[in-house]
Amino acid sequence: MKGLTCVELRVRYAETDQMGIAHHANYLIWCELARTRYMEERGVEYRDLEAQGLRFPVVEAHVRYRLPARYDELLRVRCWVRDVASRRVEFGHAIERQEDGELLATARTSLIAVDSNHAITTIPEKVRKLLAPIPDPIRL
Amino acid sequence: MKGLTCVELRVRYAETDQMGIAHHANYLIWCELARTRYMEERGVEYRDLEAQGLRFPVVEAHVRYRLPARYDELLRVRCWVRDVASRRVEFGHAIERQEDGELLATARTSLIAVDSNHAITTIPEKVRKLLAPIPDPIRL
Amino acid sequence: MKGLTCVELRVRYAETDQMGIAHHANYLIWCELARTRYMEERGVEYRDLEAQGLRFPVVEAHVRYRLPARYDELLRVRCWVRDVASRRVEFGHAIERQEDGELLATARTSLIAVDSNHAITTIPEKVRKLLAPIPDPIRL
Amino acid sequence: MKGLTCVELRVRYAETDQMGIAHHANYLIWCELARTRYMEERGVEYRDLEAQGLRFPVVEAHVRYRLPARYDELLRVRCWVRDVASRRVEFGHAIERQEDGELLATARTSLIAVDSNHAITTIPEKVRKLLAPIPDPIRL
Fold first, then answer.
1. Beta carbons of A74 and A108 less than 8 angstroms apart
2. Is this complex scored with an ipTM above 0.90?
3. Domains of chain A (ranges plus CATH)?
4. pTM
């Protein structure tokens, strides 16, 4: 679907904790995988942006954990742009269990553009044009 | 200060990423260290609760990243209870740089109580009494 | 190839450190992904073994890092059994860069079988028969 | 003791896995904390070396896991130099449980010096003089 990216991943053993579920900090890493893929699919390599001195640190993250993800489960992480401005972009994320489509978590993450000195800068026009917001496909 | 807990930690090399700053997922781990200490200081060992079959998974997390944390910096993570109900507790967190007191990030995390089958249960009375909410000491 | 398992993975941003390369601790996690797949491909689900009270902690790991792995690089992790005894199995690992086949690292990891009380036990006959050692395909 | 450095740390919840013990990859991170402290105690800040374009990637790591480390346990990581050459230094590590002094793991890690292009270089004389080898205080 246009405007939506999806990555698949399997919960790693090292990502579990002694509660027997994936530790909640990993969801931010999974969202990052989906954002990276989002850019790649639109022809922008994050590696290339970094080579130009651009970085996109996360300035806000909001995750709702609904159901636990467990070791070895296959997950789908959906990702889309919710909003984009000259210096900031907000992504939406939905993490689902592949097997039954159950929604495990939703998340919003906001990133800004900074230069190699970590000073805020504008998102390059070329990149911003690829970040086309769509309405949330699910309620976050 | 009553109702406030503070842990100190040093940013680990393994916590940095190639942006040269601490990766944003680590902040959730740092908040967890402060929550654990909060309980301990009030006489509740999380280990003991787990031995009784109780677990406290995170169901919501909201982090605002204001300034980057860098390798080897000494950080202070403050933690307090914002709100507590029969099955859910919300913590507030402030992450500061020790050297100059600069506020690097704020966060809210909500946890629920579940039993060993991961079914929602009530927070034991003994624990709930220790989770005394205070007004936010800083704006989250 | 019989006796050899291979998994592919892409270096995650969160796996890099400020040296601009994948942090060396991640290689152990990648080796674990390959061991898990090794078992799966032979019909043994690690999840099922755990449900039977069996666990396979790592008791020794030896990694030689030859060339750095970098963000977003596609890697191949090869895995095979070097040696198996009643209570211990040793795996060999080779981590290669997909693009040019360059060898980035080699590793040996040894696991033992323990029961749910973490007491050493014998590897079930059914599992041991699947762990068929082969000569090292490359020098470790 | 001269030539020996010791750091204390507490096993984090996020460091456990569903086996109920600290995941084995974390031991490499703990060893790194001890190496960093080793340098600091001798007046060398790793941050400063990096600012000069020097990096010290790990080229070999060998860990023997003897007993599991568990959540919230206080650990001591001892670290010393085993051997130093113009381009390579080998550290020894012993990880002990604080409470009873039990030895949980031993490790050897070797690092080389590289410049900002990741080309091997010599360890600066000033640094090498601080890396004074001692006989292993325990058998690795």
1. no
2. yes
3. 5-130 (3.10.129.10)
4. 0.97
